[in-house]
């Protein structure tokens, strides 16, 4: 008999909750564990380009994983298709699938997918076990005293910290039970599909296992807001695809940087919110904001995307995003605020564009942060906090290192004047928000 360990946002072998439980289950039931990854064609087909850094990253991460498994005489099985159809085929194979282990995914579309697979398995007598892996605290683990979810970060983070103990950060020693992995020959013929097999192209991204230096974490609090230096971990993509363990990272943060730990709490916060408030993926978290009269001018949206707004910090950020798939957090805040408040373009347009471009795109974090920028999100701050992009640049990029890197023509006649004057945009924004909240 076979126990499948379906990997999705947890592309690693160490400190792996689902794999650990799958291996122990196999040991108890005289079975063996086959790690499985499915390139979901529903997701691949929806991508706007065949040149996608995330697909490239995943493909390389899978090759890395398969190499690690090969060293233990095991192998990764990789299928291409819609998950429900793939499971239908796997269940029809001669080896009896007795259980599927996987890690929780809190996105509404993923929950629907998992439910359909769970039902299929139940119909065939196979068990479904989904476990927490990608966050420290999930769903209902950090609630207000009255049992309802927090909708404001600061009190949530206080409760989160008060609940934290070694128990929640301990590693799942999956490596102790690797004797119960299925033999490599059972992973099937064909190995890991190439990008070309899936109709995709190489993007130049290079996968390397995650690493963050203790020095960076110690300096994190002072340097994290300066986009001109590498002051943040750049681990977003590894946390997104689980090529690194969040528990291991939180243990490091506990001893080296409280400010960094705080960011991991933000991450849990948004995952928790998405699970409790799935409507927020495309509706205002605070319904009052659904009445916003967005201007939504397509030409202005194009200027924002191409980094030609005439606001150099905004333009630098948009160009960095397009060129690398990364944008510094401080600049994400400025570009998002500019789109929603200065141009009065619906936050959903920006959220969708970031979803296409960001290496570390994560629905919970992206939606949560975009709604925060638009003022409609889970936030105590009022909508009339409007970033001044010039002041942001003066404060966080005083020597213009970041701006000059991405906008070399800044300060020359080739650079356009601001597409909208700050004071005017601010007044216009306040009026539109006031009107929406009145109605
Ligand atoms: P570090 O500063 O080194 O932080 C470490 C980790 O903490 C990050 O990798 C991330 O997992 C987590 N984290 C940090 N800040 C936040 C935050 N505000 N919210 C949630 N998690 C956080 N983050 C994403 O992971 N995916 C997204 O799609 C995403 N979209 C964003 C959209 C907007 C408009 C804004 C303002 C922020 C967004 N963020 C998103 C949050 C943040 O900008 C990135 O996590 C961070 O810049 C990634 O770089 P890093 O790994 O060097 O972060």
From TrEMBL:
<feature type="site" description="Electron transfer via tryptophanyl radical">
    <location>
        <position position="370"/>
    </location>
</feature>
<dbReference type="InterPro" id="IPR018394">
    <property type="entry name" value="DNA_photolyase_1_CS_C"/>
</dbReference>
<feature type="binding site">
    <location>
        <position position="220"/>
    </location>
    <ligand>
        <name>FAD</name>
    </ligand>
</feature>
<dbReference type="InterPro" id="IPR005101">
    <property type="entry name" value="Cryptochr/Photolyase_FAD-bd"/>
</dbReference>
<dbReference type="InterPro" id="IPR002081">
    <property type="entry name" value="Cryptochrome/DNA_photolyase_1"/>
</dbReference>
<dbReference type="InterPro" id="IPR006050">
    <property type="entry name" value="DNA_photolyase_N"/>
</dbReference>
<feature type="domain" description="Photolyase/cryptochrome alpha/beta">
    <location>
        <begin position="1"/>
        <end position="136"/>
    </location>
</feature>
<feature type="site" description="Electron transfer via tryptophanyl radical">
    <location>
        <position position="347"/>
    </location>
</feature>
<dbReference type="GO" id="GO:0006139">
    <property type="term" value="P:nucleobase-containing compound metabolic process"/>
</dbReference>
<dbReference type="GO" id="GO:0006950">
    <property type="term" value="P:response to stress"/>
</dbReference>
<dbReference type="InterPro" id="IPR014729">
    <property type="entry name" value="Rossmann-like_a/b/a_fold"/>
</dbReference>
<feature type="binding site">
    <location>
        <position position="260"/>
    </location>
    <ligand>
        <name>FAD</name>
    </ligand>
</feature>
<dbReference type="GO" id="GO:0071949">
    <property type="term" value="F:FAD binding"/>
</dbReference>
<keyword id="KW-0274">FAD</keyword>
<keyword id="KW-0157">Chromophore</keyword>
<comment type="similarity">
    <text>Belongs to the DNA photolyase family.</text>
</comment>
<keyword id="KW-0285">Flavoprotein</keyword>
<keyword id="KW-0456">Lyase</keyword>
<dbReference type="GO" id="GO:0009416">
    <property type="term" value="P:response to light stimulus"/>
</dbReference>
<feature type="binding site">
    <location>
        <begin position="360"/>
        <end position="362"/>
    </location>
    <ligand>
        <name>FAD</name>
    </ligand>
</feature>
<dbReference type="GO" id="GO:0003677">
    <property type="term" value="F:DNA binding"/>
</dbReference>
<dbReference type="Pfam" id="PF00875">
    <property type="entry name" value="DNA_photolyase"/>
</dbReference>
<feature type="binding site">
    <location>
        <begin position="263"/>
        <end position="270"/>
    </location>
    <ligand>
        <name>FAD</name>
    </ligand>
</feature>
<feature type="site" description="Electron transfer via tryptophanyl radical">
    <location>
        <position position="294"/>
    </location>
</feature>
<dbReference type="GO" id="GO:0003904">
    <property type="term" value="F:deoxyribodipyrimidine photo-lyase activity"/>
</dbReference>
<dbReference type="InterPro" id="IPR036155">
    <property type="entry name" value="Crypto/Photolyase_N_sf"/>
</dbReference>
<dbReference type="Pfam" id="PF03441">
    <property type="entry name" value="FAD_binding_7"/>
</dbReference>
<dbReference type="InterPro" id="IPR036134">
    <property type="entry name" value="Crypto/Photolyase_FAD-like_sf"/>
</dbReference>
<protein>
    <submittedName>
        <fullName>Deoxyribodipyrimidine photo-lyase</fullName>
    </submittedName>
</protein>
């Amino acid at each position: 008999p076979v126990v499948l360990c379906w990997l999705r946002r947890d592309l690693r072998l160490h400190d792996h909750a689902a794999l650990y439980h799958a291996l122990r289950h196999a040991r108890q039931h005289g079975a063996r564990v086959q790690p499985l990854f499915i390139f979901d064609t529903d997701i691949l087909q929806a991508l706007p380009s065949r040149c996608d850094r995330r697909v490239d990253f995943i493909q390389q991460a899978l090759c890395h994983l398969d190499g690690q498994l090969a060293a233990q005489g095991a192998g990764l099985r990789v299928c291409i298709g819609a998950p429900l159809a793939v499971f239908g085929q796997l269940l029809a194979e001669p080896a009896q699938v007795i259980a599927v282990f996987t890690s929780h995914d809190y996105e509404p579309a993923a929950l629907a997918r998992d439910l359909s697979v769970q039902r299929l398995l139940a119909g065939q007598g196979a068990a479904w076990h989904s476990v927490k892996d990608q966050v420290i605290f999930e769903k209902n683990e950090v609630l207000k005293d009255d049992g309802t979810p927090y909708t404001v970060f600061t009190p949530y983070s206080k409760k989160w910290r008060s609940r934290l103990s070694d128990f929640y950060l301990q590693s799942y020693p999956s490596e102790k039970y690797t004797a119960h992995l299925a033999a490599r020959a059972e992973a099937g013929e064909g190995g890991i599909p190439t990008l070309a097999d899936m109709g995709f192209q190489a993007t130049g991204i290079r996968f390397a296992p995650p690493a963050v230096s203790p020095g960076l974490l110690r300096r994190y609090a002072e340097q994290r807001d300066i986009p001109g230096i590498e002051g943040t971990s750049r681990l977003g993509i590894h946390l997104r695809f689980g090529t690194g363990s969040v528990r291991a990272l939180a243990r490091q943060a506990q001893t080296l940087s409280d400010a960094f730990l705080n960011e991991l709490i933000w991450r849990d916060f948004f995952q928790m919110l998405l699970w409790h408030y799935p409507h927020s993926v495309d509706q205002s978290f605070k319904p009052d904001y659904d009445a916003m009269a967005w201007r939504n001018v397509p030409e202005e949206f194009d200027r924002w995307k191409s980094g030609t707004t005439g606001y150099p910090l905004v333009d630098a950020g948009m160009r960095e995003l397009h060129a690398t798939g990364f944008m510094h957090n401080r600049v994400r805040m400025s570009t998002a605020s500019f789109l929603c408040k200065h141009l009065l373009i619906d936050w959903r347009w920006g959220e969708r564009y970031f979803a296409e471009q960001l290496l570390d795109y994560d629905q919970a974090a992206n939606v949560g942060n975009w709604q925060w920028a638009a003022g409609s999100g889970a936030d105590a701050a009022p909508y009339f906090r409007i970033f001044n992009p010039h002041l942001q640049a003066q404060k966080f990029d005083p020597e213009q290192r970041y701006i000059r890197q991405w906008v070399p023509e800044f300060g020359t006649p080739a650079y356009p004047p601001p597409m909208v004057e700050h004071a005017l945009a601010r007044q216009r924004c306040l009026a539109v928000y006031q009107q929406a909240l009145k109605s």
